[in-house]
Amino acid sequence: MALEPQTNPTVSKGTDVAPASRKRTFMRYVRLLLKSKTGTVGFIIVTGVILMAVFAPYLAPHDPNEINPALMFKPPFWLEGSEPGYILGTDNQGRDLLSRIIYGTQISLLVGISSVVVAGIIGLTVGLIAGYYGGWIDNLLMRVVDAFLAVPNILLALVILGVFVPGVLTLIFVLGVTNWIAYARVVRGEVLTLKEREFVKAARSIGVRNNKIILHHLLPNVFSSFIVISTLSVATTIILEASLSFLGLGIQPPTISWGLMLSAGRDYLATSWWIATFPGLAITITVLGIIFLGDWMRDVLDPRTQVNRR
């Protein structure tokens, strides 16, 4: 007599465990976000900026680079002499300010996120290696860190940008190379403490290789600090990009940048204040939103905070 195939109820139920667990984790983060006022505000601002950058061609009412001498220095819609259809007014070349601000989000996010990725990879690698291996490797890498700390970031960036041709890729490279120090120092400090913990010593005692200890045991435990630093660094990098573009060493025309818009409006503050004011507000609101979201992420990802909630 043939045996009927038997089904394992444990296996069949186990297929839903991972999706259910992910769903519970997602809902938990949603509840924590809604409980935090600053986190909610930051999430709304950051989401809005990202959507503005992605859908800029559909949101911008005019061509951001269209020059119209007949519409130069038109004020915002609520002031006398404004032009219908130009909500935030026009600049010194008759270009729509709202459209330029919307397109400017693309460059700000691109430079901010890309340079933070470059800086994070360098700093995380240096911090993990220096903290775990110690000895002459730690001394050598920390002397490199000290050398970078001896020179202000903005000065080092100006020197490098003075050598290379200014542009988006150059700016991303320069900001990434000059801003990795914070990652290296924080990660190294945490690794120095973590490598003396019991779980690391136990992994060593059973012959686990160093690279696996670094990737599987140390990296997950420093990742929360890494995320917080990265989030706050995006805000700092956006300000640096605007500052360098304001000085003429960052983004170059015809690429649209909030820093370039500030630079164009500085000569008209007394008569046409809106040309520099609205890009400045865009930078301020974006940076505040990123900082708010970063503070919330720090609270959520901090293991000590999670223990206290339980």
How is this structure best described in words?
This protein is mainly alpha-helical and 310 residues long. The chain has helices at 9-14, 17-35, 37-54, 56-59, 97-133, 135-149, 153-163, 168-178, 181-194, 198-205, 210-246, 258-265, 274-301, 303-309. The chain has one domain: MetI-like (MetI-like fold, Orthogonal Bundle). The chain is built from 14 helices and no strands. It is globular. The model is unreliable at 1-15 (pLDDT under 50). Residues 105-294 form the ABC transmembrane type-1 domain. It is found in: Cell membrane. InterPro entries: BP-dependent_transpt_permease (IPR050366), MetI-like (IPR000515), MetI-like_sf (IPR035906), OppC_N (IPR025966).
Helix content: over 70%
The number of helices is 14
Strand content: under 5%
Number of domains: 1
Largest sheet geometry: none
Termini distance? 56 Å
Q: Averaging pLDDT over every residue, what do you get?
A: 84
Tell me the radius of gyration.
25 Å
Quaternary state reads single chain
Order of helices and strands: HHHHHHHHHHHHHH
Q: Count of DSSP E strands?
A: 0
Structural class, judged by helices and strands? mainly alpha
CATH class: Mainly Alpha
Q: Give the overall form.
A: globular
Report the CATH topology name: MetI-like fold
Instruction: Supply the CATH superfamily name.
Output: MetI-like
InterPro entries: BP-dependent_transpt_permease (IPR050366), MetI-like (IPR000515), MetI-like_sf (IPR035906), OppC_N (IPR025966)
Keywords: Cell membrane, Membrane, Transmembrane, Transmembrane helix, Transport
Membrane topology: Multi-pass membrane protein
Subcellular location: Cell membrane
